[in-house]
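Archive entry. Fields below.
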Amino acid sequence: MKLKYTGKTKDVYALEDGNYLLQFKDDVTGTNGVFDPGANEVGLTVEGAGRAGLRVTKFFFETLKEKGIPTHYIDADIDKKTMTVKPAEVFGEGLEVICRYRAVGSFLRRYGMYAKEGQPLDAFVEVTLKDDERGDPPISEDALAMLGILSKDEYRVLKELTQQIGNVVKEELAKKEIELYDIKFEFGRTGADNQIVLIDEISGGNMRAYQNDAYIEPLELEKRFL
Amino acid sequence: MKLKYTGKTKDVYALEDGNYLLQFKDDVTGTNGVFDPGANEVGLTVEGAGRAGLRVTKFFFETLKEKGIPTHYIDADIDKKTMTVKPAEVFGEGLEVICRYRAVGSFLRRYGMYAKEGQPLDAFVEVTLKDDERGDPPISEDALAMLGILSKDEYRVLKELTQQIGNVVKEELAKKEIELYDIKFEFGRTGADNQIVLIDEISGGNMRAYQNDAYIEPLELEKRFL
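PREDICTED_STRUCTURE:
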């Protein structure tokens, strides 16, 4: 087992059988000690955050598997805080794909001239580059194709998967009377046919959720959800 | 004749026959006295800038008319620095539509991880909101439709017109051995059928052009071109 990459919220190891092992950590992204799913730095370390994030991720990846939605997930070990996944290649240097149900965060900062805080957005999908130095800029379907990051056909698949998965998460949260405002995903290509699959994780740290119009912190969200 | 709007580089008057008169000024956009077509403030005032800009605009709008490409242009009076145009309604609070032939400016600031300075971009089209306060954010086709600014059908027309007009400008500049790197346009809806037409102007202040790999300032560009 060989360490391949040290991420903000998890480490990635290569396994001998060609698969990968994700080691979840207790760090969450944020700024000045306040959680922010869009932040590029580790904002705080919370005891139990890694295990709670993995529990939620396991739940959603297994739910997606039942529904036939492709992911890189193989299995998870909650005690060890690890998840085994298939190898996948990210698009370019990595993209974040956001699905929005209500206008908050960077959407509102950009489009506040046309959108009110909290207004419904109907599973709106947008893509941003993972590029800390340039503030994770949004990028269009045309630019992704022109720069050789993602073909037009792949964009179509990516957008459809994003809305399908966003809707699954939204429905599952709704069962606990939690409302999903937005969520971000990562995707990659896997296998000989370059199938597009969901990668990384689905946990409180990737989404903004509200209950009775009050924002719920990731760990609290995971507690109420599980 | 009634003053309707005072812009950064021109004033707009309503005429009694329902058309509008654009009064070109000698102000150009920029920051700290240096021209920048993407800047939101008047950076400097240059004697003769208004008249030179109008001359170039007149040339291009008349060239587009000959080619059957729709604009709001009726006629121009170079001495008075005025242009008469049909009434048109902008999209939302106004959009800028950029056509890029080489990677410079905000494209490079956003996508520098994937693009080298000056690399060819094949008439790449992107749209930004006119919103000084929020730094003129880029916006996708999907977001424009969702926010009720521009329908999907209108986007298709807008993109096609942008590339057609960009190519006309590029070809005309090439005749003087000037290379167009990027250009920004404004469009609006006009007439009972809401036809999409080019509005505003096409002058040195709307584009970045180079000769022998050296950037040409707007006034110098207009001098060399005419």
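CURATOR_NOTE: Residues 21 and 117 of chain B are 39 Å apart (CA to CA).
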